[in-house]
Amino acid sequence: MTVDSTAARKPRRGGSKRAGAKTAKAAGEPELVQLLTPEGERVEHPDYSIDLSAEELRGLYRDMVLTRRFDAEATTLQRQGELGLWASLLGQEAAQIGSGRATRPDDYVFPTYREHGVAWCRGVDPTNLLGMFRGVNHGGWDPNENNFHLYTIVIGSQALHATGYAMGITKDGADSAVIAYFGDGASSQGDVAEAFTFAAVYNAPVVFFCQNNQWAISEPTEKQTRVPLYQRAQGYGFPGVRVDGNDVLACLAVTKAALDRARTGQGPMLIEAFTYRMGAHTTSDDPTRYRRDEERELWEAKDPIKRLRALLEREGLADEAFFAGLETEADELAKHVRDRVRTMPDPEDMAIFDNIYADGHALVDEERAQFAAYQASFAEESH
What we know:
Elements: H1 17-26, H2 54-79, H3 93-100, E1 108-110, H4 116-121, H5 126-134, H6 143-146, H7 157-172, E2 178-183, H8 190-201, E3 206-212, E4 215-216, E5 219-220, H9 232-236, E6 240-244, H10 248-263, E7 269-274, H11 293-300, H12 304-314, H13 320-342, H14 362-382
Parallel strand pairs: 1-2, 2-3, 3-7, 6-7
Antiparallel strand pairs: 4-5
Helix pairs in contact: 2-3, 2-12, 2-13, 3-10, 5-13, 7-8
Region (Disordered): 1-30
InterPro entries: Alpha-ketoacid_DH_E1_comp, DH_E1, PdhA/BkdA, THDP-binding
Domain Dehydrogenase E1 component: 62-342
């Protein structure tokens, strides 16, 4: 997709998608793929479409509701001192569930530290996500069991990992694809630029999924780029598209098309999911110091869960019994998470030195002995 603008302006919303796209382009604004309006009305797009059954639509709604409830419980646990830190996905459920449900089991996912919804779609136990944030393990799950890599704290490095993996499966002759998640802040990192270069040159089967939630901690997007993020792909020689990140149907349709494109040897693609981070960057952040309440209120009207519920109710695809049952299921999930976190065993004191080098290392052996002596000193003092 191309636009006439050289400024990173916010896209227009509402109305007929086909007519809306023309209006946006005429006004010099980025085109936006949207299949479900904030009011919950289905609209068409000339390049992307999705045909889902009532059961599948209810499934997407369930995914988003349970993911949001899990996320809220994790935030509460951190506030109660049970977790050291938590990165909330509040407001980004559609981007994650839509893209996550577009993947096949044999695809490989490289997340950041906020892809709790994608982890849910890949079948990772939600409680396993919390071990690292509680400080009792280094990840908590086997990446190869669900083709879902461990969370990456270093900003942007997973884009390189994903590209290298995608180059590898091409050599293996596999027809699977790779998807790498990162935020708008990571798009300013050199690792992401290098990943784009290698992916383009080697025609790697990788989809770069950027969740543009408007704020890289306290820096707004307009202080990071002079053009919409998806347009950066043009400079590397592969296509980019901006999708309504609060529209789960559009995120599903666009990501599925991009992954299918990658699998058939057509190379990489960049998806910019235009969304909003409703909460803090992490629980150590205070967003009231750098953004206005009016901005959040504007985006609350575009809530991804509310718009899908509006569709389900308008079309008679779900009744009150469904919504009530889902609320009960969410309560049960929250209790399960709470109980599991509070009973997680602490690791052995010396386990930090295990599995660093396959054959051992003199310096690690020295540090292990020093730490053992340090630990023993507490026992001596207690006598």
